[in-house]
Amino acid sequence: MLLCGGKLKLYVLCVKLCGNLKYSQSHLYSTVVPPDEITINYRHGLPLITLTLPSRKERCQFVVKPMLSTVGSFLRDLQNEDKGVKTAAILTTDGREIPATTLMEILLMNDFKLVINKITYDVQCPKKEKLSMEHATDMENVKSLVHRLFTALHLEEFQKKREHHLLEKIDHLRGQLQPLEQIKAGIEARSEAKTSGLLWAGLALLSVQGGALAWLTWWVYSWDIMEPVTYFITFANSMVFFAYFIVTRQDYTYSAVKSRQFLHFFHKKSKQQHFDVVQYNKLKEDLAKATESLKQVRHSLFANARRESQ
Hints:
Layout: E1 2-4, E2 14-16, H1 21-27, E3 37-43, E4 46-52, E5 59-63, H2 71-81, E6 88-91, H3 104-107, E7 112-116, E8 119-123, H4 133-220, H5 223-248, H6 254-272, H7 277-309
Antiparallel strand pairs: 1-5, 2-3, 3-4, 4-5, 6-7, 7-8
Helix pairs in contact: 4-5, 4-6, 4-7
């Protein structure tokens, strides 16, 4: 909430602008002292931050909700109120930047620095009276209750926004996958054709080998001569199968050989056509996760609708 207008007269604790030379040198912030000042006081239990907007040169009051607002949301409100605020940051007194996810309640516990358009303001926070242990416990319970109520009241709205976001994400991922799916389908078709051709070639080779052994056994030589030959051929085949297991760490089965050869042709064709397999797999995983999340969100919305109807 913003209360903006002309000059406001507030009898509260305030600190005049002062520069931090160390921080200014490391982050290229100016040390020129402007005639403005930042004040913080509490009204109806809520912090009220009053400062002068750089473009409009008028005082503006920002009402902060400590348990809901964060440093990032406060800086966004400041930039939205005055488009002349190009850069804004909040630092600790020793010059370290405070994360945007920090709650304003935590920020207002200690003094801090507000940097607007490379000008540093030292801000002192009014000290609150320390509460007793009983009052502190009650306050924490109230905060927890308020947080649960806020979550319950805004859960459906959050889920609808989440559903809309997931739908947009799924559409975007499908748009990225569509051209990749077409390329992948072409590569798979050519790889499958080559694999099938290789299997048929293996069958033809075994047929030729069987026919040659039969011809040598019954027309050229006798079984007494060809028996040791067939034995050594069988033993050689066993050695080939064992070597395959040592190299691939897989049993020699026709389905395993076919799958391995298909992947070999697929990756070879992918490199030739510059098809990024890693990117494709990542997009497929992201799409699966987004689809599963959308399913869970819709299930939750459906359950809430049923409870309300009852």
